[in-house]
Design a protein that fits this description.
The complex is a heterodimer of chains A (118) and B (117). Chain A has 118 residues and is mainly beta. The N and C termini of chain A lie far apart (41 Å). In chain B, strands 2, 4, 5, 8, 9 and 10 form a six-stranded mixed sheet that branches. With 117 residues, chain B is mostly beta strands. Classes of the chains: A mainly beta (118), B mainly beta (117). Chains A and B meet through strand 5, strand 6, strand 10, helix 1 and strand 11 of A and strand 4, strand 5, strand 8 and strand 9 of B.
């Protein structure tokens, strides 16, 4: 079975603090993809990053960085120097198996609501 | 270009009525997905369409739910005899080609908020 766990339901930080959102996944597939999506108060899910199971390199995009560790089945997301505009619900998602078989349907974690206060 | 669009944005209906929710995917995207977001269940996969292949209906919660995709583009999700537990935000997403890693991210629409009284 596939499962994504985001243990942090809510996080509150003050602007300019760094914050890490945790994501732990379970899958028996050897080929899979991991994603992070942002859902701002407006409601629309915004794609942030994709990682495939063969690429454990960390990635940095501006203030965002992602740490993928297969040994611990984790795909954590760090926001450096957080800003009020980062306030949103963040979802980690897993898509497993070969895409032609499973079509890439996403299994989402429960989401972490991040509140950045000025 | 235009993103995924959904209509209506809000729908209020009475228990027992049928509802239809519409999704227009991004032009050229071959894959289309429906998800449901509710407070109790989070984000759940419902159904997936890819080209002319048979849809993956494994996430549909009951036989009251059905969906079709016409001409490989627009999709309609139909809920028959709605129940209060069907109240949720229904999200549609599309991707260019789920089989190709560089094109497999899903782009989501704004959703339809369904309220069943």
């Amino acid at each position: 079975a596939q499962k994504v766990t985001q243990a942090q339901t809510e996080i509150s930080v003050v602007e300019k603090e760094d914050v890490t959102l945790d994501c732990v996944y379970e899958t028996r597939d050897t080929t899979y993809y991991l994603f992070w999506y942002k859902q701002p108060p407006s409601g629309e899910l915004v794609f942030l990053i994709r990682r495939n199971s063969f690429d454990e390199q960390n990635e940095i995009s501006g203030r965002y960085s992602w740490n993928f560790q297969k040994s611990t089945s984790s795909f954590n997301f760090t926001i450096t120097a957080s800003q009020v505009v980062d306030s949103a619900v963040y979802f980690c998602a897993l898509s497993g198996g070969f895409f032609y078989n499973q079509g890439g349907k996403l299994i989402f974690g429960q989401g972490t609501e991040l509140s950045v206060k000025p | 270009g235009a993103g995924v669009s959904q209509s209506p944005s809000n729908k209020v209906t009475e228990k027992g009525k049928d509802v239809e929710l519409r999704c227009d995917p991004i032009s050229g995207h071959t894959a289309l997905y429906w998800y449901r977001q509710s407070l109790g269940q989070g984000l759940e996969f419902l159904i997936y369409f890819q080209g002319n292949s048979a849809p993956d209906k494994s996430g549909l919660p009951s036989d009251r739910f059905s969906a079709e995709r016409t001409g490989g583009s627009v999709s309609t999700l139909t809920i028959q005899r709605t129940q209060q537990e069907d109240s949720a935000v229904y999200l549609c997403a599309s991707s260019f080609h789920p089989g190709l890693a560089v094109y497999n991210e899903q782009f989501f629409g704004p959703g339809t908020r369904l309220t069943v009284l």
